[in-house]
Write a structure and sequence with these properties.
This protein has a single domain, classed as Nucleotidyltransferase, domain 5 (2-Layer Sandwich). The radius of gyration is 18 Å and the shape is globular. Helices cover about 40% and strands about 15% of the residues. The longest helix is centred in the C-terminal third of the chain and has 16 residues. Helix 2 packs across helix 7. It has 13 helices and nine strands. With about 325 residues, it is of the alpha/beta class. Strands 1, 2, 3, 4, 5, 6 and 7 form a seven-stranded mixed β-sheet that branches. One of its GO terms (molecular function) is metal ion binding. One of its GO terms (cellular component) is cytoplasm. Its EC number is 3.1.13.4. Its main location: cytoplasm.
């Protein structure tokens, strides 16, 4: 599937505390949810999505975006890295983006996505309510076969995912084929809404790698980082935030997602770590908490960190090279 041209120009989505009036969601002609008009719930649910219900859940997600839930976060689970990086983790922020991209591409090209988590909120941080519960989504894919020796994996990563409750045989039987998922995203029209969202991620090079791979027909990722970053901007728009990059502007924040969330006082309210739905929700709630930091820190993060992926650099820089 070739990259799909945008039919609508993405509109910058600013948190309400940074401007007097929240912009109207012009792409679908509907105003966003206003604070106080949202549904309330007393529980949280990670909605499990498989081949039998993924079209219906995509329709639900599309309707929520049209209703104004246009802040989003996503997370992927995959079989780990099968080619070890020569760049130590603590030096990735100082590494040359081209080298970081090559290592990510090498691993994504050789492995299969296992899960995709997706969470939505309105600009006030309110989560959508479905079937009486605040919700996020966890899409389970069938592409990876744990019993197939040709499907490369990092055994340590697979053991971690098993301990966290991922059922590989069940995913193989009832999971979604990633090609079918990408086709439905296009057929439903959801692909045209994605660039109009504000995306919150955490160290998301691999996450974007797997989604761009899916959206472009499961082909190998481009050799050129410029082409890859152009694809990211085409599919997801310019309003992409990576918490790992945002942390460099914040005193006292370091480590992985769990540590950052704990430092900021953000609780994991559903699921567990290394489950894509739960991690996407924790990412979104951590992002919202960072934007609400005192002394204009949230505004600084919003203005300085948009469109920059940790380790890969600025979408605009590469897109115009």
């Amino acid at each position: 599937m070739p990259p799909i041209p945008l039919h609508h120009r993405p509109i910058p989505l600013y948190p309400p505390q940074f401007q007097s009036r929240v912009p109207v969601f012009r792409v679908v002609g509907a105003p966003i949810c206003r604070q106080g008009s949202v549904k309330k719930a007393d529980r949280f649910e990670v909605r499990s999505v498989c081949r039998y219900n993924f079209k219906a859940e995509i329709a639900v997600i599309q309707s929520l975006i049209r209703a104004g839930y246009r802040f989003a976060s996503f997370d992927t689970e995959f079989p780990g890295t099968v080619v070890k990086s020569e760049i130590p983790k603590h030096l990735i922020s100082q590494a040359v983006p081209v080298d970081v991209y090559k290592m990510m591409k090498t691993n994504v090209d050789q492995t299969h996505i296992i899960q995709l988590g997706l969470s939505l909120s309105d600009p006030f941080g309110n989560l959508p309510v479905c079937d009486g519960a605040y919700c996020c989504w966890e899409f389970n894919f069938s592409d990876f076969d744990v019993d197939c020796a040709q499907h490369l994996r990092n055994s340590v990563s697979i053991d971690v995912l098993k301990r966290q409750g991922i059922d590989f045989p069940e995913n193989k039987c009832t999971g979604i084929c990633s090609a079918d998922f990408a086709e439905e995203i296009e057929r439903s029209g959801l692909v045209e809404l994605l660039p109009c969202l504000t995306w919150a991620t955490f160290q998301s090079a691999y996450d974007f790698g797997y989604l761009i791979k899916m959206f472009t027909g499961n082909k190998e990722l481009p050799e050129d980082i410029n082409e890859f970053m152009g694809n990211v901007k085409t599919y997801f728009g310019p309003n992409v935030y990576d918490i790992k990059y945002m942390m460099k502007f914040c005193d006292g924040l370091f480590g992985g997602l769990n540590r950052v969330a704990e430092t900021l006082g953000v609780d994991r309210v559903a699921g567990s770590s290394h489950q894509a739905g739960s991690d996407s929700l924790l990412t979104l709630q951590t992002f919202v908490k960072m934007l609400k930091m005192e002394k204009n820190k949230g505004k600084e993060l919003w203005e300085e960190c948009g469109g920059v992926l940790f380790g890969l650099g600025s979408l605009d820089f590469w897109h115009h090279c």
